[in-house]
Amino acid sequence: MAVGMFDSGLGGLTVLAAVQKRLPDVPFVYLGDNAHAPYGVRTPDDIFNLTTAAVERLWAEGCDLVILACNTASAAALKRMQETWVPADKRVLGVFVPMIEAVTERQWGDNSPPREVAVKHVALFATPATVASRAFQRELAFRAIGVDVEAQPCGGVVDAIEQGDEILAEALVRSHVEALKRRMPQPQAAVLGCTHYPLMEHVFADALGPGVKVYSQPSLVAESLADYLQRRPDMLGAGKVSRFLTTGDPRAVSTRATQFMRRPVAFEAA
To answer: What residues are labeled active site?
Structure first.
């Protein structure tokens, strides 16, 4: 009954922690493609090929349902995967859907025409590849009208977080927020479009200032997955054991993950 969770590195652990808290009886197999991280500077074809290889590895672990806990993979590869690659008996879901649902206050299954929503000015912070894909804006436009989205590619933030350099990460976050606010001085809401960024949520919130609602993914994804599995219990795969897998050096990744999550995390070779 295992569910697979994939990220290019360690960021997806923020989502995993939230879904494990929400669904304590479900085993999860986490795969980090640390050997090829970060994805945010790769081409769409490269991201597609790396993501499909990782998803196949999680299917081999008995995970019929795989969550792409990586905004870059969700933005650059998921649509193509769902349309051309995923077989009928498997499911691959991304992390954009819960965020779009939260911003527009409407469920994904609501196929009524786009309508006006309360939030008119949204700041999107994401990796360069996610920003370049315009996936967030595209999906938002299907559901809402009159929303101005200003996107800021946050180069360097993922690398700093993965390396455990919180001082550099904070400095970069503040610099990126400042750059965005020069173009959109008064955003009503901010979307943290990378699963690494929740670790810097307090810095984003402080730099953005009071009155800006910050949408962070872990809790939104956890609730969305719980709802999905309630409706589709058949998508719980055959796997029974929670595991942490990496394409990188297990010892080094385990050390960084333990620092990252502030609790022991032991990775195995994928």
So the answer is: 70, 194
Residues of the chain with pLDDT > 90, as a percent, come to 83
Q: Is the dihedral of CA 104, 109, 110, 114 positive or negative?
A: positive
Structure confidence at residue 110 (pLDDT): 74
What distance in Å separates the CA atoms of residue 190 and residue 188, rounded to the nearest whole number? 7
Average pLDDT, the chain: 94
pLDDT of res. 111:
74
224 and 120 in a single domain? The answer is: no
CA distances from residue 41 to 1, 60, 142, 176, 245 in whole angstroms, order as listed? 34, 28, 27, 17, 23
Domain span at 80: 3-96+218-269
Residue with tokens 């993965």: 162
CB count, 10 Å around CB of 79? 15
Q: What is the pTM of this model?
A: 0.91
What are the pLDDT digits (tens) for 108-165?
567 788 899 999 999 999 999 999 999 999 989 988 999 999 999 999 999 999 888 9
Residue 58, token pair as written in the block: 């999680």
Query: φ and ψ at 268, to 5 degrees?
Result: -115, 160
H-helix segments, the chain:
12-22, 44-60, 71-76, 78-84, 96-104, 128-133, 135-141, 157-162, 166-183, 201-208, 217-231, 250-261
Number of domains making up the chain: 2
- Report how far residue 162's alpha carbon sits from residue 29's, in angstroms, rounded to the nearest whole number: 20
Instruction: Give yes or no: residues 59 and 159 share one domain.
Output: no
Phi, psi of 92 (to 5 degrees): -125, 120
